[in-house]
Amino acid sequence: MTINVADKKRFLNWFVSHVSFSRREVSWILNYLATHETILKNVCFVEHAEKTPRGIRVQGIQAEGEPISLFLKGKIFVDSDQIFHEIRLNWKEPLYLECLFPNCWSNEFFLAVLEDNPHYRWNETLDAEMATKVDAYFSQADIDGQISVLYKQIDEALGKGEQERFLNLSAEVNQLLAKKSMVTK
Questions:
Q1: What distance in Å separates the CA atoms of residue 13 and residue 101, rounded to the nearest whole number?
Q2: 76-98: buried (b, 16+ CB within 10 Å) or exposed (e) per residue?
Q3: Is-contact 51 120, C-beta < 8 A?
Q4: CA torsion through residues 63, 66, 68, 70, sign
Q5: 3-state class of 137 per DSSP?
Q6: What is the pLDDT of residue 126?
Q7: What kind and span of H or E run contains 55?
Q8: Of 38, 113, 117, 183, which residue is the least packed, with the fewest Cβ within 10 Å?
Q9: Along the chain (185 residues), what's the average pLDDT of each consecutive run of 10 residues?
Q10: What was the pLDDT predicted at 26?
Q11: Using CA atoms, how far apart are residues 150 and 169, in angstroms rounded to an integer?
Q12: What pTM was estimated for this model as a whole?
């Protein structure tokens, strides 16, 4: 999914004006990104920037640690000048930006630009219990979809007076309902 540059710019402008940073250079770097669309085209907003080949983590004063960190091929850099020059000199390269701030999951601007990190997929880090719950959810959703289709076919069979088809479809629904109750246990 390609995120619109205008949405990225809108989020960065919101981020700079609503989140406080312990070093003013962080705001300068974010403003630089927001005003250079050619660079912003290659910026992806992700989680776990440290897992990417070229990522930056930016965090407000509420979070512990460095306000800005560059992760470059397994190394970490925290010098603002070095980070700025990396962005400026390698503007054609993909840049993964992680923004940490309070209530980020309820911020519409952030959610509009957040993408799945291709170097760290959330669904590959689920524990066994959560993976089982996710699988059960999708199995149940699949069964619900099949049942919905069968109910429509049952209505059609009733409307046409097709008793044998009605009985067969009803038996299928009953099997799926039994299967669904096994999935939810």
A1: 14
A2: ebeebeebbebbeeebeeebbbb
A3: yes
A4: negative
A5: helix
A6: 63
A7: strand 54-59
A8: 38
A9: 89 96 96 96 96 96 92 95 96 96 93 92 68 81 90 92 92 89 72
A10: 97
A11: 6
A12: 0.67
User: Which one, of 50, 45, 54, 55, lies nearest residue 116 by Cα?
Assistant: 45
pLDDT for the residue numbered 162: 92
Closest among 61, 46, 133 to 102, alpha carbons compared: 61
Question: Position of tokens 């760290």?
Answer: 120
Contact (CB, 8 A) for 140 and 180: yes
d(CA 54, CA 92): 12
- Six token digits for residue 103: 């209530």
Strand order through the sheet with 43-45: 43-45, 95-100, 54-59, 68-72, 75-77
